[in-house]
Predict the structure of Radical SAM protein.
Amino acid sequence: MNTETIRKTMENCRLCPRNCGVNRLEGQRGFCGADAKIRAARAALHMWEEPCISGREGSGALFFSGCSLGCVFCQNRSISRGERGKEVSPERLAEIMLNLQEQKANNINLVTAGHYVPQVGAALALAREQGLCLPVVYNSSGYEKPETLRLLEGLVDIYLPDFKYMSPELAASCSRAPDYPEIAKAALEEMVRQAGSPRFDERGMMTGGVIVRHLLLPGRVADSKKVVEYLYGTYGNRIYISLMNQYTPMPAVAGDPLLSRKVTKREYSRLVDYALFLGLEQGFIQEGETSKESFIPEFDGEGV
């Protein structure tokens, strides 16, 4: 991705569905909170992704600062809405990717990079030229424009989006994005077109394809069932579905009667049972106690 493409997108930024139109080159910041300079908060081996992403060695996770969705319950709020993170150039970003490869990462995992797509694309192309040979994972909220995703075609091997809500009302109350369901559907269609069917190496590590994550929210089993029904009914075995029970109540939602509590075992069992009833075979479920703040990484600038 050349300098001219980066300049044009940053001058009138409409990379995400918020369509803020701000001039990030002049330091203006839209909904995501980012100007034209890349900010990253952590680059390290990460063990807490799906087994075929983390493996034994870990996923080379690069956490970016800022977010275009801004969920009220976000567990990474210190970087998604805060200022935590270090400025890095595309050249430095490419170097970080190569460092993660040297650490034996199973892949390069770009976490919430949507508002930096042109810069990240340039870094990926440079890293490939310099010897990067790992699969690249695009780890996303699912709130993405297909035309922005097309800028990454040929650079990303695995898409790892969320599909958070089927209800526009729920999306509006939690993420100020009533258009989320329709946006996520269009984004996922583009991701599947690019990445194709799931592929794995001899170790069982994913090398291509799509895994869609869905985080069950407390008291929202009915909406989650609709999400699973849509995903499985639309894509069948062309994607994997990861059902997550790790919702962690954060201070920002302390006063909410539902979001201030954890998901119960019964709620999660109802969702998993429904997925099995539909016929889902290609999926992941979580076992044990995953709703802990200890699972949230330290965003201390490690590796950046």
Summary: Strands lie at 38-46, 59-64, 86-88, 108-111, 136-140, 158-161, 199-200, 206-215, 240-244, 283-285. The mean pLDDT is 95. The longest helix spans residues 180-195. The CA atoms of residues 41 and 300 lie 6 Å apart.
